[in-house]
């Protein structure tokens, strides 16, 4: 094609879009990075910014042995079978180089997390900003793209794709501030996340959780998946999502799952356990949603102080009064609003399992800080959906695959627009970091491929 306005258009300035822009600009492509809201970052901004990487030099420095094979085995165990095994292998194999590239070539500050275990991973493998905030990851990625001369154009929502004879060759922007205009480019990267904030799409694809609270960023309204599907894109894993079992209520911040992993548990308003929390924060979300509208996360002051020291967001929740302290079981029952006998039963169940090394009544065996001790802590919480993991199927260049078996020329998809690696449906297949791995990992692949497409079309 020519008559191009730029080489590569990236739709959405979250983790996936910023990384795609970075990779494309690094290859020398001209990039237009369009963001519909007034602030970049999307879900990436509100996340904890943790990206898995197997075999990184930071793991080696910490004496941790890891490999892409081990990562594939871990994540497959958590997800069960799904239609995107090819992506899991591709992303795992590129993950160490991805994180090292971000840190060493682009000054993105990521450090290996070794002080707690992550759902789905058998070794410490998650690399995150020192303050564990996606806002810091977003800030560093923004600085990196700006160093390469890419501006983030906020307040410019993409409304549809331009095509010519089945090939995507640009976008139409249409918004109250931007006005309506066309932007032509030989390659477009869809990086506008999934459909968590689109009630109709959630009801269609994940009806079981359509009533749950959505607590991700507002921009995730799913339009890019609809555009690609209209061009014949193949959709995969549409019922899969990342849930979170315990969002502090009414504060709205996450109750760190480390409180549970260290030995805490969740109680219903009647003071009953609802299941085995070791399935993870995502897998436990539908368990809570089915059992009760809200619950309490119960732990003790030792766990509170440990987590407060390591996780600033949790420290803020403590400061804000979201973590109630109870000197004994009757006071804990009063905080929850249930019978003391129910709380005593739950504490005794946990104590017996932790002390004897046997399973508790829910089948759970993992209590690393032993039996809970008074004084206890409780946080009122609700289950939530964080983001959707289904989307368009992509190949090894993050090019969008069609139902007919080919690819849509000129179109790439990353992050929440692309089909994820967390199983075919439900929340239980999600391992920590799957969201950002498909955003940042596919973002790099798509940015490089889009830059090459732009160079080839210019030469031909
Ligand atoms: C509280 C929370 C914690 C999380 N923690 C983690 C974690 O630690 N690790 C992990 O891997 N995942 C985590 N996740 C999930 C992770 O945040 C997402 O999977 C990931 O950020 C998705 O990145 P993305 O680039 O695809 O989308 P986003 O970061 O959401 O970026 C998409 C951008 O596109 C914009 N956009 C949408 N439509 C348009 C349009 N039409 N035109 C232009 N722009 C558009 C949006 O406004 C947004 O800015 C967490 C999620 C939440 C909610």
TrEMBL record:
Keywords: FAD, Flavoprotein, Oxidoreductase
Superkingdom assignment: Bacteria
Flavoprotein in keyword set: yes
GO molecular function: steroid dehydrogenase activity, acting on the CH-CH group of donors
Positions of the FAD-dependent oxidoreductase 2 FAD-binding domain: 7-426
Cofactor: FAD
InterPro entries, alphabetized: FAD-dep_OxRdtase_2_FAD-bd (IPR003953), FAD-oxidoreductase_2 (IPR050315), FAD/NAD-bd_sf (IPR036188), Succ_DH/fumarate_Rdtase_cat_sf (IPR027477)
Entry protein name: FAD-dependent oxidoreductase
């Amino acid at each position: 094609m020519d008559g191009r306005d730029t080489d590569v258009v990236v739709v959405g300035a979250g983790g996936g879009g910023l990384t795609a822009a970075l990779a494309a600009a690094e290859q020398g492509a001209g990039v237009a990075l369009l963001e519909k809201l007034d602030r970049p970052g999307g879900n990436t901004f509100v996340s904890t910014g943790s990206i898995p990487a197997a075999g990184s030099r930071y793991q080696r420095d910490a004496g941790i042995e890891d490999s892409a094979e081990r990562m594939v085995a871990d994540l497959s165990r958590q997800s069960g079978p799904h239609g995107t095994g090819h992506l899991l292998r591709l992303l795992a194999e590129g993950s160490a180089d991805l994180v090292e590239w971000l840190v060493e070539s682009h000054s993105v500050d990521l450090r290996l997390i070794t002080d707690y275990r992550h759902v789905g991973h058998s070794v410490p493998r998650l690399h995150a900003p020192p303050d564990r905030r996606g806002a810091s990851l977003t800030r560093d990625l923004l600085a990196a793209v700006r160093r390469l001369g890419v501006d983030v154009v906020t307040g410019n929502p993409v409304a549809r794709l331009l095509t010519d004879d089945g090939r995507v060759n640009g976008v139409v922007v249409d918004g109250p501030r931007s006005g309506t205009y066309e932007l032509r480019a030989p390659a477009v990267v869809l990086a506008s996340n999934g459909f968590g904030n689109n009630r109709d799409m959630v009801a269609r694809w994940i009806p079981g959780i359509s009533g749950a609270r959505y607590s991700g960023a507002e921009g995730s309204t799913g339009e890019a998946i609809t555009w690609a599907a209209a061009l014949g894109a193949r959709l995969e894993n549409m019922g899969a999502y990342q849930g979170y079992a315990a969002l502090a209520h009414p504060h709205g911040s996450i109750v760190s799952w480390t409180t549970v992993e260290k030995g805490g548990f969740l109680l219903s308003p009647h003071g009953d356990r609802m299941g085995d929390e070791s399935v993870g924060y995502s897998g436990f979300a539908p368990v809570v949603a089915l059992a009760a509208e809200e619950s309490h996360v119960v732990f003790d002051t030792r766990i509170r102080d440990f987590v407060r020291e390591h996780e600033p967001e949790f420290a803020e929740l403590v400061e804000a009064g979201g973590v109630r302290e109870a000197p004994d079981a009757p006071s804990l029952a009063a905080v929850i609003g249930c019978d003391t006998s129910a709380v005593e039963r739950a504490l005794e169940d946990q104590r017996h399992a932790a002390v004897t090394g046997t399973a508790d009544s829910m089948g759970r065996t993992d209590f690393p800080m032993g039996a809970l001790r008074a004084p206890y802590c409780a946080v009122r919480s609700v289950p939530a959906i964080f983001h959707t993991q289904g989307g368009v199927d992509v190949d090894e260049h993050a090019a969008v695959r069609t139902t007919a078996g080919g690819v849509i020329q000129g179109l790439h998809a990353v992050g929440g627009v692309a089909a994820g690696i967390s199983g075919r449906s439900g929340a239980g297949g999600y391992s920590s970091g799957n969201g950002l791995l498909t955003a940042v990992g596919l973002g790099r692949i798509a940015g490089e491929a889009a830059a090459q497409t732009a160079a080839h079309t210019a030469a031909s």
